[in-house]
Amino acid sequence: KELQRENKDLEGIKFLVTAGPTREIIDPVRFLSNHSTGKMGYEIAKAIIKRGGEVKLISGPSGLEAPEGADTVLVESAEEMFEAVQESYPWCDVLIKSAAVSDYRPKTREGQKVKKDSRKEEIQLTLVRNPDILFEMGKIKGPGKIHVGFAAETEKIKEHGEEKIQKKNLDFIVANDVTEEGAGFAHHTNIVHFIDKNGDHSKTEKVEKSAIAHEILDKVLLKKKSENS
Ligand code: CTP
Ligand code: CA
């Protein structure tokens, strides 16, 4: 299998990959974010390059080094990520959305630092919904394009995965149970469930994220081949 992968089997295929968390600004010194490190998406980008594919990587703030050979665009908020994805979408054959996009953002972005008010024991922060990038791209999904989603779940993996496949018009989803030891954010390893739109469901062992990246690309390639035949 490794041999075949070294064989530039992704040559001629264009991948748009998103990675990392988003940051939703509250004021000049504060933001809302999540625990995503970007590792999964960056490993996917590296694996694509190794196998001869082309990749645009749209990344939230991760601190990771841009993979050599990838066209990397750094963004901050979900809205910025949405714009960057829209711009590059027509170019791609495959969209892989591994970014952990913030579902909500502060309604107002304060121009000055919010000061502590000694009279207030409690304050409110109003949040508004961010665009669901994968859902929006699913609505305008181009012919022959493959969309891959990710999901971090704490329960009902299969049900939630299948719902997201339908709702977001995905080909398959890579779901992980963040309650499992050695899975999810900030680990080198992960345990994932592959849930396909055709109903197939499989689960990996606890393996390196780079190995999961290659498995995802194997599945994409299989789908592309079955479409072309
Ligand atoms: N996603 C996205 N834009 C958003 C939120 C999520 O593109 N605003 C993408 C993620 O990149 C991921 C997939 O949708 O590939 C699923 O993300 P997830 O957070 O699991 O799903 P949600 O639809 O946001 O549902 P919930 O958080 O309620 O489980
Ligand atoms: Ca979400």
From TrEMBL:
GO terms for cellular component: phosphopantothenoylcysteine decarboxylase complex. Residues 10-220 form the DNA/pantothenate metabolism flavoprotein C-terminal domain. It catalyses: N-[(R)-4-phosphopantothenoyl]-L-cysteine + H(+) = (R)-4'-phosphopantetheine + CO2; (R)-4'-phosphopantothenate + L-cysteine + CTP = N-[(R)-4-phosphopantothenoyl]-L-cysteine + CMP + diphosphate + H(+). Its cofactor is FMN; Mg(2+). GO terms for biological process: coenzyme A biosynthetic process; pantothenate catabolic process. Transmembrane segments: none annotated. One of its GO terms (molecular function) is FMN binding. It comes from the Bacteria. Binds 1 FMN per subunit. The keyword Magnesium applies. Pathway: Cofactor biosynthesis; coenzyme A biosynthesis; CoA from (R)-pantothenate: step 3/5; Cofactor biosynthesis; coenzyme A biosynthesis; CoA from (R)-pantothenate: step 2/5. Its EC number is 4.1.1.36, 6.3.2.5. Residues 15-229 are annotated as: Phosphopantothenate--cysteine ligase. CTP binds at residues 103, 113, 131-134, 150, 164, 168. Keywords: Decarboxylase, Flavoprotein, FMN, Ligase, Lyase, Magnesium, Metal-binding, Multifunctional enzyme. Catalyzes two sequential steps in the biosynthesis of coenzyme A. In the first step cysteine is conjugated to 4'-phosphopantothenate to form 4-phosphopantothenoylcysteine. In the second step the latter compound is decarboxylated to form 4'-phosphopantotheine. In the C-terminal section; belongs to the PPC synthetase family. In the N-terminal section; belongs to the HFCD (homo-oligomeric flavin containing Cys decarboxylase) superfamily. This is Coenzyme A biosynthesis bifunctional protein CoaBC. It comes from Isachenkonia alkalipeptolytica. The gene is coaBC.
